[in-house]
Amino acid sequence: MPAKSSTFYSLAVRHYVFVLPPLILLLRFATRKQDIFSPPPLALGSWQCNISVFTILTALLALLLILYFFVPLLSPKIKIGPQGIYILHANRLFTWDEISGASHVVIPQWQLAGDENWFDWEKTLIIHRYQQASVAIPDISIFSLWACKKYSPGLKTNLLTQGIASVIYSAWWLPFLYFLYTADWNLIISINMLNVISLVCSVGIFYWLILPYSICIMEKKRWHIRIPCQRQAEHTVYYLISKQ
Length: 244
Known about the structure:
Radius of gyration: 22 Å
Strand content: 15-25%
Helix content: 40-55%
């Protein structure tokens, strides 16, 4: 693969990063009555914290963003360039001549690899081929579709629909930042707990089930593919999807 190509990295490390937002919110809830620009009432012997709550929260948020966006750079997975899509660890190149399209979907881990993990979902790039089975590459960003369109402009993709879905997937950052810096919990406290639970369950069902499954079903019908995938090896980096 020539130097003029786009490299995409494994997103698997992000699964472990999501333990930080609840901890950060818990810290903010504990200091909700404290002025955000004043130090929290933390002391250990003669030592007393002189760093403001705002500075602490911003530092933790910066750490979260570093882990979320930069740590995956340590694990390159595929390259997309003028020749096609190259899977690094498998030393496998799929040329544009054999690729009919590309899809980006969110697939449950149990469908992707046959594992008994019902709560882990993989952002997956699917390479559709003219004559052979489609290829699924897990833990790849949706920006891989943009790279596919860049190097093969006529390629069919679901960039629009999955792009809209990705914006919805990322919407959780808005309430997170709101509660992080305002600590305005009165809105939640004022709502009936049953309504809060119903709202959280409804959003969760839409976020984790309805939206990803809908896009996955659309792509299955569009390309006539059959998911679950076929595991290539015990520790493979891609899977095969048979045609219907």
